[in-house]
Amino acid sequence: MTYSTYPTGKVRTVTGDVSPDSLGTVSAHEHLWVGPSLMTSLEPEFLLNDLERTVTGVKQFIHSGGKALVDALPLIEGRSARALREISNRTRVPLIAMTGFHRLKYYSGGHWIHSQSANELAEILICELQNGMDERCSLGPKPVPTDIRAGALKIATEFHHVPNRTEVLIEAVILAHHATGSPIMIHIEQGTAAHAALDLFESHDVPLEAIMLSHADRNPDRVLHKELASRNCYLGYDWMGRIKVRPDSVVYELISELTTAGYANRITLGLDLVRRTYWPSYGGGPGLQYLFGEFVPRLRSFGISDGDIQLISATNPQKWLTFRAPLNLPREK
Ligand SMILES: [Zn+2]
């Protein structure tokens, strides 16, 4: 497979550009590799760096009916473009990697993301999307591109607010979106500050159907979700299988409410299994196979139609991940 400069109408995987409908069912938020980093020193369970165990988990995902995966680790220490490509090559699973920025607390105080201008940051993101992801995990000072390209942009807001520095990072993501047409994932902390984040993108002419709000279901407020869906963004439901915290019936009822209101075309699914304790191959659960092996089939008993299940499982994430024609707005100084 090959890469084009502008993959308009295509999905960009770590092995090349593909047509959206070739993906099939998609888990739209997962973590397949997290190397030793500041993030894993803060959260030791995030360390996912055993290739054999990860490949075993991805094979279980495929066996359960899953077809494609999004790795949601952006440009940060611990991401490995080469590990993602090897996982994709060994399992034949189409894998979409990310650039962009995680929560500010996962970068050291002296890290360049705290000081670079939006234009400088955008240059790096565009390089990651068009030339290749940095193999030095953002440790810099200058990125060293691999030949493996990111297929989406990510940004993270905070609990009930968007910090000033995050606004600069969002500006960089907006510039990179307009230069490339890349899809965007917004990590909304505990499902909050979603309208505020969307407002920032909308005020800079980013079409909201290019955006998926990840972790929306951590705040399973059906009134809020219908408001957000009416703005034409995607709502990422990616916290299923957390039985210690809540039963999955919360999400089934939310999906039932949204589909009844006509918003089946706005939902994507994932499991966000970032802790090794979530993986059977690392000795835990529920495992990647839970999504299409158990959660999705059970949607039928909640009255969700096969057509809506097809939208939520496949068509919606395929559309979200498709590159749009770049706008190429002139850079502001
Ligand atoms: Zn995640």
Which features characterize this protein?
about 325 residues, alpha/beta, TIM Barrel, six-stranded parallel sheet, three-stranded parallel sheet, 11 strands, globular, binds zinc ion
Bound heterogens, unique: zinc ion
Number of strands: 11
CATH second-level architecture: Alpha-Beta Barrel
User: Could you please say which CATH topology applies here?
Assistant: TIM Barrel
CATH level 1 class label: Alpha Beta
* Fraction of residues in helix: 25-40%
Unreliable sequence segments: none
Using only CA atoms, what is the Rg?
18 Å
Spatial sequence of strands, sheet with the most strands:
6-7-8-9-10-11
- The chain-level mean pLDDT equals 95
Describe this structure as you would to a colleague.
The protein is of the alpha/beta class and 333 residues long. It has one domain (20-321): TIM Barrel (Alpha-Beta Barrel), CATH 3.20.20. The protein contains 10 helices and 11 strands. The strands form 3 sheets. The protein has a 6-stranded parallel β-sheet with strand order 6-7-8-9-10-11. It has a 3-stranded parallel β-sheet with strand order 3-4-5. Helix 2 (51-63) packs across helix 3 and helix 4 (118-130) packs across helix 5 (164-180). The termini are far apart. Zinc ion (ZN) binds at residues 29, 31, 72, 272, 274.
